[in-house]
Amino acid sequence: MTGETPPPGSRIDTTVPHAARMWNYWLGGKDHYDVDRVAGDQFSQAFPDIVHIARLSRHLLARIVRYLVNEAGVRQFLDVGTGLPTVDNTHEVAQRADPTCRVVYVDNDPLVLTHARALLVGTPEGATDYVEADLRDPEAILAAAAKTLDLTQPVALMLMGIVGFVTDEEGAHAIVARLMDGLPPGSYLALWDGVNLVTGEALDQAQEDYNEGDAVPYNLRSREEFGAFFDGLELVEPGVASIPFWRPDPDPLAELKEVDALVGVARKP
Known about the structure:
8-stranded mixed β-sheet; 9 helices
């Protein structure tokens, strides 16, 4: 993508950085504009570990989906805040393990919508669909998801790096709880988000500078605030953990170290 003005009628704003496009830039993708690269470079200069976290998050998603399909027996996924398609998207990992898996993606970014419709095509045995909706409207998400998913059977709710965009004043914990309330027993919540546990000041400053701009701000929560998203659910091992330490793949050449992002996967009893 270039920084050129989009065609008339487009709802893609290229004057304000967007998290999904910045994330795509950090992952080495091509779906971003000049404004996203500038903001991404400013953030990564202040907090270089963000690029590492972006890449770790993709490996994490694959590990979580494989666990949910192969060990937990889940065959349905509701991926909210999916972001731009990249390698090993949720449906690809899930349907590789079982072609009958059904996946619904949810996002509110028009660029993501355009790419999702073109690229997120799954197996004929399963189903892959896209819903344009906002995390702040759980009722709309559940109603739309019910057109593709059987909400009487377990569903994995995937919230990968998205809840930080919802403030406590907007009821972030209540929104996640409402989504889980709409799913049957045996469903799972898989959630990771940025926290300021390791580097502290560097991430705080980078996030503060970013939030002072025109883009949608991101809220860093404490470990306790993060853990509260799993209230009433049964965390699977290893519980809440720094994302590289959640069921890591054996790799003797890779050094595991904590980063400023936590993850948890929990079952609804």
